[in-house]
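#data-curation
PF: Archiving a pair of folding outputs for the training set. Convention for this channel: one message per protein, sequence first, structure tokens after, nothing in between. First:
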Amino acid sequence: MQTKYPAIVREAALEKAHIFWGDEMGLRSTHQTGTTWGEKGKTPVVRKSGNRFSCNMLSAITNHGRMSFMVFSGKFIASVFIQFLDRLIRHNAGRKVFLIVDRHRVHRSAKVSEWVEAHSKDIKLFFLPAYSPELNPDELLNNAAKAGVSSKVRAKDQSELQAALRSYLRSSQRRPERIKSFFKGKHVRYAQAA
């Protein structure tokens, strides 16, 4: 926070790059959040489908309130991450992207490294220290998305869950102040300035 991030900020200023923080998450039909009520002495029951299904999301946010995301099913593998990186580049209209991510094995895979090297004029990856998810503001978006989707919708199948997640993320995308608020947490305040 004292040396590496300030160096990234200086390099981004020189290259006129946008700094994004990225992460991935999974959302399951069995996820329960929030509170409910019940009669005294009786266990509250939350009715939902007995089916188990999930969907996944990749997202990247900036401290200026911008967000890109991709909802997908299946495993998080290098080709999925590369598809997201390609979309992130295209959505930034010719400005270089500096993407700060955790040390997930997919982020550091040979296939991703080769792709990033081939697109080095458009994108550069930086890695957070190991075992430090609290330093990634995008983790706060993940938490908000899980709570926002799970508390409002009891999806009957995977397509409903994906639609609810996309709806929540599009709504957040239209609210830059909401995205900026993810940079106000105790451990991520270092990322507010850039």
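PF: Second:
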Amino acid sequence: MHNRAYALAFLIVILMGCSGAYLALRLILGDGSPASGPAWTPLSPLSNIEAVPVTPIQNAASPTRRPTPTPLVIITPAIPTATPILLTPAPSATPMETPAAPTTATTETVAAPAATPNADFGFVVRGPITHTKVGGDCPGDSIRGRVTDRQGNPLAGVRLWLLDEYGNEAFAVSKREQVDLGKYDFPLFGPPRTFYLVVLDSSGHPDSPRVEIIHKRSPNEDANCHYVNWQRTR
């Protein structure tokens, strides 16, 4: 019973939907008679359409051409050649450095401090000058000795001057330390040569006889150390 009612209702809904669709289509398209809308007029054939002439553009300006780029030439300035700077080496601070070898067979020697036998010197050589090889109190090539007063006591602060035949010079002062009181030493470097030794006074003038010391030459070619002791006379 219920199934028949449902089927009838469904049929009614379909009919109502179809009727609504038909009416809507009539309203949109009309009823289909000639009087229901404007008459349809066919289009004119293409042959009857007047052609509109196209006027070509005369004297059209040609497009502007870009100028050909000119390559940029870079001129490199000439770099002047640097002039080397010649540096003159400073003279050696060590007075007893190896002297330059003479360029000629004849060598001009430097005058040693003048010795005046009759002058009244403040210091004189005490005892003989001795020459020994390395060992004992001789650590290496050197001129060394001790300075004393008139009584033979070690004297400190006495200045001595050493000069070689090439003009190299050195200075030493007798020592104040208790273990080496009154002693002095000149380390020697370089080839065999002759040295001259004097004691200077407080003004820097020679105050002793000049002592000549031959180093590594006959008769002292085998000696390393040369000992010269000085004693005050006044």
